[in-house]
Every structure is written in C-alpha cells, then in structure tokens.
Write a structure and sequence with these properties.
Blueprint (H helix, E strand, L loop, with lengths): L10 E7 L5 E7 L7 E6 L10 H9 L3 E5 L19 H19 L4 E7 L1 H4 L12 E5 L13 H20 L1 E2 L10 E2 H11 L15 H4 L4 E6 L7 H8 L5 E6 L19 H10 L1
Helix pairs in contact: 4-5
C-alpha cells in the first residue's frame, strides 16, 4: 500500500460543477487500469482536499478510483476573498456533495460507489438527495458538534467558539478567519454561523427543521462509523449521537496504543490504520 515516488504525476486535477453550477476543485486518483470501484472522500470542515491525498493514493493502490474535492469556500474552491461570499454548510451537502456523487456515478462510471466522510463529511452525507447512488460509507469521527458530547477541555472550547468566537468574528470580518486561530482554513460567514447554530442545539443539525432530515432514512447503504479514543471532539458519545441518523449502521471504536496520538485528524496520517477500512470496502 506504499505510494511510489511518481504518484504525484498521476494525480489529475479536475473542475466539477456543483448542482447550481459553482465550480468545485477536485483531484482524481486513477490507476493505469481504471477501476469501476470509486471512493469519494468528503473532507472535514475547513480542511482542504490535499490533506487526504495520501489516503486517496492508498485507495488507488488497493484497486479503487479515488476522488477528492474542496467544498465551496474552502481550499481551491474558495474565491479570492470570502468577504460577502454566500455559502452555508448545507450547501456543501445539497449542492456540492450531491454533484460529486453524481459525477462519480455517471461520469466516472462507478459500478460500486463508496464515500469516506471525515467529520462533517460523514455528518452531511445523509442530506444528499441521490443517496441511492451510494453503495456504502465509512465515517471517521463524524460526530455531533453539540458541546455536551465533547470530551475534556473541548466542552469549554466548543462553548466558547459556538457562542462567541464564530458569531462574533464572522460578523465582524464578513467571514470566519479560522486560520488566525490555527484551526484550519477560513470559512464563509454563512457556513460559520450555521455551524455554530447547530453546535448550540442538543440535536446538532438533526434538530434543524429547515433541513430535509427525512433523507437520512433513505440513506440505506451500509455505514461503518469509527470513533477514536483520544479524539476529544469526536468522542464515542458524540459519534453515536450523530450516526444514529443512519438506518444501516455498524460501529467500531479505535483505542490508540500508549505511544500513539490519533485525535480528530491523525487517522488520515497513519497508514497502518487504513487496512481495516479498506478491507471493509473490499467486502462490500
């Protein structure tokens, strides 16, 4: 599963139109012999697609075609200035993710189409209207963002950010300067305010009556949801609170060894952890 030095030349940049025509930056990881088994990687909030490059290459080496992309307002799908840019988190699902799934199924010719959803990327998948195109999903730390479910000091951090930092700075700057806090890339104002509002609700986004929540019931593909023992943001309790929305759920919990630190992002940096997930995809 080790990537060879020339893999970078095989990574193909793409631009894929969202459902409303907005151009989304994407990267296709396709082996010399194209595979009709396609994995779409849905990233975490404020996390550009390049973060998932190593895992996408490992999927390619395992016989899959992998596709990464940036949500609108993030990474290479962001405009020159986020000030005044209109985008909400729900747009990442209903307009962006749904279009990427459609592209994978119909343009890439996926016979078997899987999602890997990290954090918000696993939370939002149940909102797409074309869930019947999906044959399975692996969700990594796809948790409820409500502060009560967080571990340790994260309870206070989430309270601070969702009640004060996000609303105040997003309103003051016209976008959320998340990079100033070392927490990821900047976010559109609408996305930051919507995310903060969800985090203040006990049921997180599942308590928002303006969302098409009935679509979760239609997401009948099997879902494997991981929680990680040292992820204080994606605790087992918070993952359970969010993943209960999916009707066909399998849960696994990873406990780091004494010399490991995985946290919310480390899984995608630690190749030995990937074999279990790839084996699950192979079984499907």
């Amino acid at each position: 599963m080790t990537a060879s030095p020339d893999h970078a030349a095989e990574d193909e940049p793409l631009t894929i139109a969202a459902r409303d025509g907005y151009p989304l930056a994407a990267t296709l990881f396709q082996a010399a012999t194209p595979s009709d088994r396609v994995v779409v990687i849905n990233g975490a909030t404020a996390t550009p697609r390049r973060f998932y490059r190593r895992f996408a290459r490992a999927l390619r080496d395992a016989g899959y075609t992998a596709l990464t992309y940036d949500y609108r307002g993030v990474g290479d799908s962001a405009p020159a200035s986020l000030r005044g840019f209109d985008a909400r988190v729900r747009d990442w699902a209903e307009k962006d993710m749904a279009a990427i799934v459609r592209h994978a199924r119909h343009e890439l010719g996926a016979e078997r189409l899987f999602l890997v959803g990290h954090s918000v990327g696993g939370q939002l998948a149940g909102l797409i209207e074309n869930a019947d195109d999906v044959d399975g999903m692996i969700a990594l730390s796809a948790q409820s963002g409500h502060w009560r479910y967080q571990g340790g000091e994260q309870k206070a951090a989430v309270l601070l950010h969702t009640y004060l930092t996000l609303p105040l700075l997003a309103t003051l700057f016209g976008y959320m300067p998340w990079s100033l806090l070392g927490s990821g890339e900047d976010l559109p104002k609408g996305a930051a305010l919507e995310w903060a509002r969800w985090c203040r609700q006990r049921d997180y986004l599942l308590g928002d009556p303006t969302l098409p929540l009935e679509r979760y019931e239609a997401f009948e593909a099997p879902v494997l949801a991981y929680s990680i023992g040292d992820d204080k943001w994606g605790t087992a309790r918070s993952v359970d609170a969010m993943m209960r929305a999916y009707p066909n759920l399998e849960r696994r919990h990873l406990e780091p060894s004494e010399d490991q630190r995985i946290g919310h992002f480390g899984w995608f940096r630690m190749e030995p952890l990937w074999a279990d997930a790839i084996a699950w995809l192979d079984e499907r």
